[in-house]
């Protein structure tokens, strides 16, 4: 998938949500193998595509935590919590209106 994701991105055939999903999937694969640096890098790429992707912030936070960087882990987890709360608030407003 590494090569395919890069090829799709280079040709401009994928939209932001598809690229986000591809990078997130690859990041999760790196995470499961204990390759924290590559997991973080792919989460970075995913967040560039879709800045409000809660799961990428949590995954990147856990990767930082496994690397021993508690400050960055806490910052990403806080951002994930903030985004999750904002999305829940938006869902409540949609239900009311």
3D structure, described in words:
By secondary structure, the protein is mainly alpha-helical. The chain has 5 helices and no strands. Helix 2 packs parallel to helix 4 and helix 4 runs antiparallel to helix 5 (70-96). The termini are far apart. The model has no long low-confidence stretch (mean pLDDT 85).
Any descriptors?
mainly alpha, 97 residues
Per-chain topology:
Layout (H helix, E strand, L loop, with lengths): L1 H10 L4 H17 L3 H14 L4 H14 L2 H27 L1
Helix pairs in contact: 1-2, 2-3, 2-4, 3-4, 4-5
Unreliable residue runs:
none
Q: Mean pLDDT, nearest integer? A: 85
Structural class: mainly alpha
What is the 3D shape? flat
Largest sheet: none
End-to-end distance? 42 Å
Order of helices and strands: HHHHH
Q: Roughly how many Å is the radius of gyration? A: 15 Å
Helical element count?
Answer: 5
Number of strands: 0
Fraction of residues in helix: over 70%
> What fraction strand?
under 5%
TL;DR of this structure?
With 97 residues, this protein is mainly α.
């Amino acid at each position: 998938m590494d090569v395919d994701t890069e090829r799709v991105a280079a040709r401009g055939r994928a939209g932001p949500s598809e690229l986000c999903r591809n990078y997130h999937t690859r990041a999760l694969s790196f995470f499961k193998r204990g390759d924290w640096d590559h997991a973080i890098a792919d989460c970075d790429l995913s967040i560039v595509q879709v800045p409000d992707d809660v799961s990428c912030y949590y995954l990147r936070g856990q990767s930082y935590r496994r690397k021993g960087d508690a400050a960055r882990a806490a910052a990403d987890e806080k951002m994930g919590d903030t985004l999750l709360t904002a999305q829940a608030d938006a869902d409540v407003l949609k239900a009311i209106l």
